[in-house]
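Discussion board: Methods & Data

I've been asked by a reviewer to show the raw model output for two of the constructs in my manuscript, not just the figures. I'm not sure how much to include, so I'm pasting the format here to get opinions. Each protein appears as its amino acid sequence followed by a line of discrete structure tokens. Is this the kind of thing reviewers expect to see in a supplement, or should I convert it first? Here is construct A:
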Amino acid sequence: MERGGLYFPLGNATPTGDRGPTGPPTSKRAISPQRLDVPLTVLPGVGRVLAGRFAALGIHCLRDLLLYLPFRHEPPSRLCSVSALRVGEAATIRVRVRSCSVRPSRRRNLRILEALLGDDSGTVLAVWYNQAYLEDVFAARPELLVRGVITHRAGPPRFIVQSHEVLSGGEEGLHTLGLVPVYPATGEVSVRLIRSTVAKAREFTVHLVDPLPARLVAKRRYPSRCEAVMASHFPRNESDALAARRRLAFEELLLLQLALLQRRARQKRSRVRPLPPPGDLCARFLASLPFQPTPAQRRVMAEIDSDLMASRPMLRLLQGDVGSGKTLVAVYALLRAVEAGGQAALMAPTEVLVDQHALRLSQALSPLGLGVGTLKSSMTAGERRAVTGRLAAGELQLVVGTHALIQSGVHFADLRAAVVDEQHRFGVRQRDALGGEANGRPHVLHMTATPIPRTLCLTLYGDLDLSVLDELPPGRTPVRTFWFHLCAKRRLGSSCVSVWMRVSRRVWCARSLKRALPLTKLLLRLCTPNSPPVNLAAIEWACFTGICPPPRSVRPWRILPRVGPKCWSPPQ
């Protein structure tokens, strides 16, 4: 099927042909939002079995169905006669079936339905693939609306059908004319079925309550909510679809901002015990560092101190590139809670990252007399009971863990500060569970290395204060990004070899084998998309022995330079 049409991320674009008015019926019935909460079985042709299949898509009532918006739309096609068809141009024809038959093809499990379709201007041979069941449907010689593209190869011209519709006096042109909506579907609920069911429920859009004030809608010249929803499914033209998209997008963002403001207001009403100013423990930790914190780190530490000494809980997002020193700031925030006599926790998304944090914290804090505990799902029941018991008794002041920290049975005696690393890897409720009311609402610091534009941060993280580490510590090697363009005129193998040669030299010279291996795998997968599978075991062996081999798919071997004490040859 030809791709195209309008792609709207919020799912609102849908040009259609002349299907009549797209808005709700102009009756004077009172709006009754309760009518949208009834099950789908009130619609004709929808029984319990079909309603259960819709439930798998999250559609349980009429409201869910009407707000299940399409993610794109097929582009409109020209409605013409058979004689006006042009090769390679998408078109829709209104024809009647003259004859049809099913024939096998050279490919296994592929059956082709060929039907002779005609109107007053002529006939054309139409082709359907793997739809042999239509032979029984076409036995009555019905009238069709057929959408597709005519091709001219060996033999007579053929009309390759993309979609069709049997005309029976119902929703004519729903699946073929104008901008046809395309919905997320499953094997049991097809796009065609969703489209037909939404068309049956269009009269219920009048009961959709508009959350926007009428004054605001009129000022911004937006359509009403019911009109916007119907224009999202079945608009008359592209301008209607765009207007509907803008209106629903504005509504979605406005409601999100209002929800964030409400959440922020609730958080400000919460009260916590303020922490005292930084003491001897933090001073000794900063003095033990073999380097001086950057001005950006000191600025963020000052912002954190200001939050910790307030009576409302800290909710701050720390953003910084890899290597900017986020971990140092996080450790400082944890120590502020520990030296105040409370407990601190650091939650990471993976056990590997937990082990890494625990090792680094132990090395940095053991001279200060602090121990670090870990809590992971892979621990045995006895190890888990020992750690949770020490947390509940207040004997363990600092713990690093995964999602196990927020599972049932984990209780802190006095959790005063929590740090969430790689916060985008956790859900909203998972992040909030560590700082929930049950644990006394501690100060929470979220960390991320993902660059977030300020406007997006204010939109999605409007309930958090933002701190940015905008400089790297001195002596850090700057990150360099290389773009390899695989020119169509060059052989793919030679392009892969050039990439491989550069990676090999970097691995051999820098000996950064542990970090270079994932990059090597990624480059191989990106640069050899159509090549045979790469022997990654040989690559791992070569990386750890200091010799970096090329992928097996790259030939010839002789053009590779020496990258180690001897040239690499494929393992026997």
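Construct B, same format:
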Amino acid sequence: LRHIESEILVVASLVALIVMFFLGSWRATLIVLTSIPLSLLSALAMLRLTGNTLNLVSLGGLALAIGILVDNALVEIENITRHIHHGLEPREAALQSASEVAFPEFISTISTCLVFSPIFLLTGVSGFIFRPMAIVVIASLTTSYVLSRTVVPVLAMLLMKPAALDKTEHSRLGSIHHHVDRLLSAIQAFTGKFLLHLQRAGFLAVIGMALVFAGGVFTLMTLGRDFFPRTDAGLMRFYIRAKPGYRIEKTGEIYADIQREIRRIIPADEMDYVLENLGVPESGNLRLVDSYAVGSYDGELQIQLAGRHHSTIEYEKAIRAMLREKFPDVVMFAQPADSTNLTLAGPTPTALDIRFAGRDVSGNRILATELVDTMKNVKGAVDVGIQQVFDQPEYFVAIDRVRALKLGVKMNEAQNVLLSALGTASSVSENYWTDPKNGYSYTIQVQAPIQNMESIDKLMNLRVPASEAEGGTVPLSAIASVTPRLVPASVGRVMLLPIVNVLVNTENTDIGSIYKAADNAIAKLRPRLKPGNTINIMGQADSMMHAYGDLFFGFALAIFFIYIIMLFNFASWILPVIALSGAPVAISGAAFMLAATHTTLSVPALMGFIMVMGVSTANSVLVTTFARDQWLTGMDAVRAARSAVMTRLRPVLMTAITMIIGVVPMALSLGEGGEQNAPLARAIIGGLLLGTLASLILVPTLFGIVMRHVRRPEADNKLETPA
């Protein structure tokens, strides 16, 4: 978590510098920055009240929230500063500003909070991970709005100076601010002229919006889809299975050979340790050890890399290729190793776990084998195989009960002789010895020396008590026969139905494309299933599809509620549509940025879409509200829209730039686990770049086009608007 904590400090410092350069006053900057720690403290308190903890995602939410938190205070203090420069006293400027921006900021804050509501509809792992982020953002935003209405105006009255007494412009900070102010003035003038020409040919804005949105939709459709980005924690874990029936000594030799090859791939200075777990864990540890081993011929190999190392994913690819080339007879699949990926994977060992369930085990095995052959030919699908072992060799000892009865052999005595030789501590009757010094219990296994049981003949020569036989004993072979056979090593069930699992991992591709290929292959197999048998895709792919569905439904619901709130705010059916018109462009910008940075669509990226939607809508609400107020005073729609942009351009740009700069460190995915939040930050950067342009150009253009055809209400029926 250290890199996230340092990231928060870096973001706060960058935000402070940007605000200072834009406002040109250390007093105004101090007032704005006051809201950051207070809002973050309220978010931490809300996390505590809801029983959540600090983790990578919630701390990432705090880092993101810093960029948003300054929004309300920044708009307020910029408006106060503008009024002071126009000659008002700080007290009058604070009161005038509060009356102008209080209600628009309230609507924008509510809209942003509503946009995060879909996160609470998430179920499963994604909901567990991202609810703390939503709580952090909503709690801090709410506190930020309250502070911008109370603390910020009061501090402005106490600390801000009248324009005639402010000496900041003669300082070095004033010089920097002067250059920034000149740049903003140039942007303001250019935007005004551009809007003037664009409003004369309004159809260009509509065509441009349609083209950008169409491009965004196309880009979204072509983006790869993942559940979560894979984090590089420097830990790898492989399940490796030798030939069923191998003794553990033989399995150990194979693992030793594999480890030697791995050490040739990974330099010694990048290797921390290699851990081998061979065979099935002791029965007492089965509930504690996450292992898929079923016999003496399989196990797990875990590799911990040193602090400084090359890409874990690349090493995993190299190890997989080495195993295919030099150990073609072993079965392997890479498992989630670190805590983050283990949480995302849930109970499944691979990205896709295709489950055949039903009583027709033999028929399901045939279909599963066909699916394995199909998926092995899919580009990007690796570690394809059936999880269960159906061909474990064993010797079946069949006792002739009639013969045993004639010889006076009791069944329980024959069994005891056999089990005593082979050992019973791990199969029938567990025996433990407790160390009196440390209190630990150890399994005690009593069996015949292995070197004395090197063949079936020696086993069958064991003497069994027989009351009717000469000498009182007979060899086991006198009453029993031994037959070699192949049996399942384990039996899996779901709702009492036997299952066959086909496991699939991904390499150099996204989960979505492999899911689509598997779904198409399964569609061809389903007609051949017997009644009562089913095929389902489980694992991260299934969680991903459910999370995407929940988010898209919640997203549509949030937009509907935002529209309803704006409907009451504007008392118009059209103005909310105008205010929301920039959202599709902002979302398209997020999609373009993901494509440009070769980032797949994922749940964190969709969180970025949600945040972009909230900030873009908030900026558009400010512009639309001011344009509506000017229009209601009698100004024509085109001039009102242009006036709104010229007045609100600075706070909108300041908010967007502050937030973009704030998420740049996160977008660079620096530090261990930084890959988790990088898609979110990249989506925010791309969305705000185009979303800000939409708020300053598209929204006012549409306002001018649409509202000049709308009848202005009479004075008696005019909506009350902020003074």
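Answer (T.O., handling editor elsewhere):
This is acceptable in a supplement if you add a one-line summary per construct. For B, something like: Residues 140 and 705 are 37 Å apart (CA to CA).
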